[in-house]
Amino acid sequence: MSEQTFSIKLDVDNIGPHFGDKKITFSDEVDSNKAIFFASNGTGKSFISRAFRLTSAEKQTEIADDLLTLGQAKGNLAFQIIKCTNEKKLSIAIARGKAPVIQNDTGLIFHVFNSDFVEENIKPKHYTPDGNIEGYILGKTHIDLTEEKRAEKAKESRLNEINKAIDKLILDAQEELRTKGVKSSTIEYGLIERSQLRNKKEFEKLASFDEIVEQLAVLSKVPENLPDVQAPILSVNQTVSEEVAAVLKTAYPKTEWDEEFVEYYKTHRQFIDVGVELSGSGNICPFCKQPYGTDALSLVHQYKAYMQDKEAEILRRIEQLSASVSNNLSALKKVQKDTKAAIGEIANIKKYFPSLGNTVLDEPELSEEEAALFTRITALLSLKAADLPAIFDEIDLLAASCKSIVERFASTTSKNEDTIKTVNTVKNNANGERLLLRRNLCKAQFLRLQVNTASSFTEFDEVTDSLAKLRESILEKEQKERVSKRDKVYETLTFFLNRFFSGKYTIDKDTFQVKFMGSSVGKNASNILSDGEKSIVAFCYYLASTHVLIARETDYNQLFFVIDDPISSMDFHFVYAVAQSLRDIKEYFGITSFARMWVFTHNMEFLSIVARNYIISNVYVMKPGKIEQLKHQLLMPYESHLQDIVAIAAGKQPPSHTTANSIRHVLETVSRFEYPERSIGKYISENSILSQDSCIFTLCQDLSHGGIRSQPPFSAEILVAACKTVVAFMNSKYEGQVKAIPQMTAKAEA
């Protein structure tokens, strides 16, 4: 691609007849954004122009279902301009039942003429243009704004760079999170967004991004079937201390039984109690199965009697209490041991689950001194069993101390049980832990991104503020000179009406009503104007309404004209005037850059006029499913006639009987192009070059019509002289036409 050329692309899908294998996918390398497309009726050119018209402010909120291909829910049009690495794109997405979604980074203002424009702006108003036009166009000022404009552009460029840099950091941060398994639906993922980054946030006890990444890696290594932590169980008699104190502080009466008998019973109590219970009320020994003798039977009766005695009951109670105290001591030691084991198990689990990092168990401690207290109580109970009347007052302190120890262990064990339940819940819910880590990862990424974007946001705000002040200054200077949009529309409309009608139809400045020969036609314009004249009035208003789209004078350079069938229903002599208007559109609107124009037509003759006179050099034909470049296939008599005239004037070929007709055709074509209402005779007489040759008009008239002649009416010298005059005339007005003759000849020969 050369520096002078660029690429244009047009993609149209599911709009009108452009669908399936008939969708438009068009691209070409061009040196101008002026193009004309020939398309027969029904090929969908109007659908394309209507899609472009959706870019206008009043159309962007309208439902555009009528543009969609029947049976389709969505359609789109994409227009691109690509020069080197710079790509500008217009995207129009249409969804049934919804307003179109338009993305336009071209900076262009698309101005569309088609039947819809006529129906909405001219026809309902009885071909009286709307004069209710408000606003101003900001013009140039005498103050030199070159430096300010340059500074504005530089600041805009810098803002764009900053935005791109911030956007890249955000996109990279989002992508990094996704690679770590974070779903975009995660609530905290929404923190990684421009507006959020401007808000300072703090998160309690949050690890760094890299630390959390490592934690996720560790979590992924959790062993299968990792067992639950077993909570220690404290099985104690919490009331035994009070019961022991009551027994040890009670003086029981001394027994009246034989001491030797009682002592023997105490020594062998368990054996005796079992034996008595087994013997029941019978006289048979439960062990040898022999009848009791008299002495034996008497002894059994003694045992039974003693066992029913108060003393025996107290001794049994003392034995039970002693066992309970010993059990309590064993239970405390077991809980202490089991808690140490649980602590070790939790430590292993914590390696995989960071949320348990601060989880600890309270380890109950039983000192030797505390254990000795329980041993001391059992010793006192033994002394009490040996001396029932004895009282042991020290038991109050011992009992209180042991009770406090048991209560301490009970509280600790209960608290640890809750903690262990939490640990097991977390362990058994690795997905929940993983989600928690990923949410924290988003938070950590947010904090990290805030640091990385802080300077960019600061600079963005500073540049934005300075740009706003600069624009305010520029606007203040620009507004020193402004033009009413209504006045500009009136001036342009008047110019074009005069151009097309030569004063026949004008426009009233106050009412914007059409006047016929100076008289207002009011609402009768629809009846007075012919169909061709209606088309001309509509086209003139379209050109004039260009000013409505303009906010500042520099906006004219952003215009892109999209024109669909501008010569529909026109008399042919108007066609030349339309072609001339297209040729000079750049000068009409003071466009200092490039004229941008796409014209659609079904009229081959109009296409030929535009193409052969190099008004538009990019010529295409639209067919179902494709747009093709139209090669040099059109042949106009004008071109051949001009070639003959130039060759004769240069002495490259002699004049012939057709030379005068060639002169007439060329001059008539030019005359109609410039002044459709003016006769060729008047045109020749009013031109300073043509009028110098007194024979030209007669040549045009006499030798272009049939008649019987006995000899040639004009000599070769007169015809050559006339050809030279015509060449001089063409060079004065349309030098390019004469210069293009060699190219025309080469193409024709090819």
Structural topology:
Elements: E1 6-13, E2 24-30, E3 34-38, H1 45-53, E4 74-83, E5 86-95, E6 101-104, E7 109-113, H2 115-121, E8 136-138, H3 146-179, H4 194-197, H5 209-219, H6 240-248, H7 259-267, H8 269-279, H9 294-307, H10 310-350, H11 368-386, H12 395-427, H13 430-478, E9 482-484, H14 485-501, E10 505-507, E11 514-516, E12 519-520, H15 525-528, H16 531-544, E13 559-564, H17 572-583, H18 585-588, E14 597-601, H19 604-612, E15 618-623, E16 626-629, H20 637-649, H21 659-674, H22 680-686, H23 696-702, H24 716-733, H25 735-739, H26 741-749
Parallel strand pairs: 3-14, 3-15, 7-13, 13-14
Antiparallel strand pairs: 1-2, 1-4, 4-5, 5-6, 8-9, 10-11, 11-12, 15-16
Characterise the protein shown here.
It is a single chain. With 750 residues, the protein is an alpha/beta fold. Among the domains are: 126 residues; 134 residues, no CATH class; 113 residues, no CATH class. 51% of the residues lie in helices and 11% in strands. It has 26 helices and 16 strands. The strands form four sheets. The protein has a six-stranded mixed β-sheet, sandwiched between helices. A five-stranded antiparallel β-sheet has the order 2-1-4-5-6, with helices on one face. Strands 10-11-12 form a three-stranded antiparallel β-sheet. Strand 15 and strand 16 form a beta hairpin. Helix 14 packs antiparallel against helix 16, helix 20 packs across helix 21 and helix 21 crosses helix 23. It starts with 5 loop residues before the first strand and ends with a helix. 30% of the residues are buried. The mean pLDDT is 82.
